[in-house]
Design goal:
The chain is an alpha+beta fold and about 375 residues long. The protein has four domains: about 10-75, DNA Methylphosphotriester Repair Domain, CATH 3.40.10; about 90-185, Homeodomain-like (Arc Repressor Mutant, subunit A), CATH 1.10.10.60; about 200-295, TATA-Binding Protein (2-Layer Sandwich); about 300-380. About 40% of the residues lie in helices and about 15% in strands. It contains 16 helices and ten strands. Strands 5, 6, 7, 8, 9 and 10 form a six-stranded antiparallel beta sheet that branches. The protein has a four-stranded mixed beta sheet with strand order 3-1-2-4. The longest helix is centred in the middle third of the chain and has 19 residues, at about 135-150. The radius of gyration is 21 Å and the shape is globular. It starts with 9 loop residues before the first helix and ends with a helix.
């Protein structure tokens, strides 16, 4: 049986690779010992021999072992997979901070202090749940973000280094030379074009995703939504920079269908198209982290449906709305994971079986027109 943590079922992973099963895209990565490259399960390249591969749960675990990202299947475009979901709230919070740039200028000790744990404990948790150290996760995040900016946008290389969180252009160049044996400019697959001042990037997500319903929720709470595009003005008081960020489902600029998908390894893939205009590119990682949270791009709908469907009251609701997502907060200082927040204390006992998706359970109840208090009465009657 496949698991999402570091203790992967190697043979189950191998079967997924042999069939290029898109359901496992982002759930693990294939490290090819003979080439030193790591790939997504859906990589279109010739399948390597079984004895030449090992499987790891995260891109950071692959890079920490000395493997470099495949330039053909581009691991940075795999749907985000929260391998830590349901295993450690501390790791989830740490990853959110790292994604926002916490280790670009600070160190692991400072990160651990913010989380209220010891530095050794934080390292142990990362090893257990992600198979890599916090600094490796941060380094991989920088590299994969830089690769996406290089291959999708028109930022000059010095600006890519800044936007991806590298401390200097020299460090940026040295890192790419060490990983890929070539300068970062060699990864740009098309001719240079004039930069218009905006940063464009595609963020992948897993289907199903009820995009229209999420936009409606965002508009209802007062966010700016016009013509299928969400936008937010960035201010120095709120975000520390001035500018604008817009988000739309893929389709207006680079998709090949009206459903927000692009072709790629494993078939059609779904993306949110982001445009960020800021006066300080160092803010880019933090802005992208907030966009992922607002649009719930890291959700694993298969895992949510599997776990919540075990409750007979939720099973039909989940089946009716498999793409239901949570509209996240732009500024989120919560102590627990957004997916597991419980706003109805009376339901604590019944909701214990919904972890780590209690917030999704409540959202499905609301969408189905069911008062959570009715479930409390059912639980009492059953007792």
């Amino acid at each position: 049986m496949f698991t999402s943590g570091p203790e992967l079922d190697q043979e189950a992973c191998w079967r997924a690779v042999r069939t290029r099963d898109a359901r496992f895209d982002g759930r693990f990565f294939t490290c090819v010992k003979t080439t030193g490259i790591y790939c997504r399960p859906v990589c279109p390249a010739r399948t390597p021999l079984r004895q030449n591969v090992i499987f790891v749960p995260t891109a950071a675990a692959a890079e920490e072992r000395g493997f470099r990202a495949c330039l053909r299947c581009r691991p940075e475009t795999a749907p985000e997979m929260g391998a830590w979901n349901g295993t450690s709230n501390t790791v989830s919070r740490a990853l959110a901070l790292i994604e926002a740039g916490a280790l670009d200028e600070g160190d692991v000790d400072a990160l651990a202090e913010r989380l209220g744990v010891g530095e050794r404990q934080l390292r142990r948790l990362f090893r257990k749940h992600l198979g890599a150290a916090p600094v490796s996760v941060a380094q991989t995040r920088r590299v994969l973000l830089a690769k996406a900016l290089i291959q999708e946008g028109d930022l000059p290389m010095a600006q890519v280094a800044l936007a991806a969180g590298f401390g200097s252009v020299r460090r940026f160049n040295e890192t790419f030379q060490a990983l890929y044996g070539r300068p970062p400019s060699a990864l740009r697959r098309r001719a240079e074009r004039a930069w218009d001042g905006g940063v464009r990037i595609s963020l992948p997500y897993r289907e199903p995703h009820d995009w229209d319903a999420l936009l409606a929720d965002l508009a209802a709470r007062g966010d700016r939504v016009e013509g299928g595009t969400w936008s937010r003005t960035l201010t120095r008081e709120e975000e520390g920079v001035e500018g604008l960020v817009t988000v739309a489902r893929s389709g207006a600029r680079t998709s090949t269908s009206a459903t927000g998908t692009k072709r790629g390894p494993g078939g059609p893939r779904s993306f949110a198209e982001i445009v960020v205009e800021v006066d300080d590119l160092r803010a880019i990682p933090g802005v992208l982290a907030r966009v992922r949270r607002v649009f719930d791009l890291g959700c694993d709908p298969e895992a949510v449906a599997r776990d919540l469907s075990a409750d007979p009251a939720l099973a039909p609701l989940v089946a009716a709305r498999p793409g239901l997502r949570l509209a996240g907060a732009w500024v989120d200082a919560g102590e627990d994971a957004p997916s597991d927040r419980m706003a109805t204390p009376e339901l604590e006992e019944r909701a214990e079986g919904w972890r780590p998706w209690r917030a999704y359970a409540l959202a499905h109840l609301r969408a189905g027109g069911i008062d959570p208090r009715d479930l409390i009465e059912e639980t009492r009657d059953a007792a």
